[in-house]
Amino acid sequence: MTQDTNELDLAAVDTYLGAHLPGYRGPLEATKFAVGQSNPTYELRTPERRYVLRRKPPGALLKSAHAVDREYRVQSALAGSNVPVPRMLLLCEDDSVIGSAFYVMERLEGRIFLEPTMKGESNETRRAVLHEMNRVLAELHMVDIDAVGLSDYGPTGNYYERQISRWTKQYRASETGTIADMDRLIGALTASVPEEDGQRTLVHGDYRIDNLMFETDGARCEGVLDWELSTIGHPYADLAAVIMQWQMPPGKEGRGLAGIDRAALGLPSDAEFIAEYCARRGLPGIDNFGFYLAFNFFRMAAILQGVYKRALDGNASDPTRAQAFGAYVPVFAQHGLVALETRGD
């Protein structure tokens, strides 16, 4: 039994899977994925099969964060739908097994593009991948939440009001110093929440290209991953999350498209991506898109602050990288303020 990982009791996992997962046979090896700052994720290998295990991180956690049981539930509900997800195999909510709750799912085969520039791919492939990304997003927001048993997956009421309240509390709980722009952004968002328009859909909460897996030699999406922030809410939050990511600088850290000649790479403009999404859903357009974009910058800033605080507390999945995230919090807050001022139509 090989343990190429940290903070995972491999012997305990092997014993538990042997008793609870039909068809499981060890011996077991594991490797921790380098990506993922929130819920530590591991590839599990036996002589016959490969699996993926996601767990809550060890240590003290913010209330309602790292809800792996919710990830398991939503992906189970989407099995067989037009939204591709890995097959869920087992959920363990007994913290005594490895120190925190975890679930096991199938290991998908495919590729993940860490950046939307998709370096090395043809323009044709880039276009096809982003069309597919757009299609899956629209399908996600057209899921019949009553039919798949998710109508109670999130509270009723104004999604943005409750999300701003929730992430403000999370941010305050992990605050390590005063960031004036973050305080201003929280106040501005609270004061400019749009009226409800009747849309209540499943939302992913962190929809971006590196949370999608595509087939190895094509553009078909094999699975939407990382559902930790999913809930029932308003669909424009997911759409704006894509656009927010594209506002970031290109490269390993920003993973965005700022300054990139998109046309030269076969990539759509923000407006083209939004228009394609609206066409798929039969929408006339989106007013006040700047609010939805600013909301995403705010939420990401709050998330990064939480990651940074966990690094200081010694609970981060990747402590070195998590420490660096603290510097990005005021940057995202500044971007949020600009979005409210300049992208309001």
UniProtKB/TrEMBL annotation:
GO molecular function, one term: kinase activity
Keyword Endoplasmic reticulum: no
Coiled-coil segments: none
Keyword Kinase: yes
Regions that span the bilayer: none
InterPro entries xref list: ACAD10-like, ACAD10_11_N, Aminoglycoside_PTrfase, Kinase-like_dom_sf
Highest taxon listed in the record's lineage: Bacteria
Pfam families xref list: APH (PF01636)
Sorted UniProt keywords: Kinase, Transferase
SUPFAM superfamilies per UniProt: Protein kinase-like (PK-like)
Residues in Aminoglycoside phosphotransferase domain copies: 30-253
Gene3D superfamilies: 3.90.1200.10, Phosphorylase Kinase, domain 1 (3.30.200.20)
Name listed for the protein in its UniProt record: Predicted kinase, aminoglycoside phosphotransferase (APT) family
Organism: Ruegeria intermedia
